[in-house]
Amino acid sequence: MVQITLVGERQAHAGHEFIYRGPQPECKPCKVRSACLNQDLGRRYRITRVRDVAHPCLLNEERARVVEVEPIAPDCSLSGRAGVEGAVLAYEKIVCSNGACPNFRLCHPIGVEPGTKIQVVEVGQDLECPLGYSLVSAKVAYGN
Question: Where do the structural domains in the chain lie, given as residue ranges?
Fold first, then answer.
């Protein structure tokens, strides 16, 4: 699903990914804020197309570009029993604070909060977990 929004000129290129963090105090008086602040808080997006339209912006280098974005979910780890292609489920956070673990980024994906509805697109390899969890890597999409 493609959405239209605005981003700072430096970020306005196809393929750039960002996580929507919500409105800033500088956005309050903006005349185009409803077009700019229309994403879901904490969700990851990828710019698919940059349009030839710009607006003044108090937050982003004084100009923001109109872009088309699509929501994307990062790869993540899932429990072995939840790793079923096509399954739609609420994401469950892996309880672990071992930042040195090679799977840490998969177990703590940025842009997928606990309870977020996801769909398993592809199940990857089994992951070796120092805590003994049965985990698999997975490509996921935000569920509807």
Answer: 3-71, 76-142
Place of tokens 């399954």: 87
84's tokens: 């079923």
SS3 assignment, position 33: helix
Q: Where are the alpha helices (DSSP H) in the chain?
A: 33-36, 104-107
Dump pLDDT digits (tens) for 29-72.
Answer: 888 888 889 998 888 899 999 999 999 988 876 789 999 999 98
What span, in angstroms and rounded, lies between the C-alpha atoms of 125 and 123? 7
Cα–Cα nearest to 46, from 76, 18, 87, 20: 18
E strands, 72-142, in order: 76-79, 88-90, 117-127, 135-142
**Residues near 33 by Cβ (< 8 Å), separated by ≥ 6?**
23, 27
**What is d(CA 41, CA 9) in angstroms, rounded to the nearest whole number?**
21
Structure tokens at 41: 């808080």
- Element (H or E) spanning 1, and its range? none
By the 8 A CB rule, do 91 and 67 touch? no
Query: What value does the CA radius of gyration of the chain take, rounded to a whole number of Å?
Result: 18
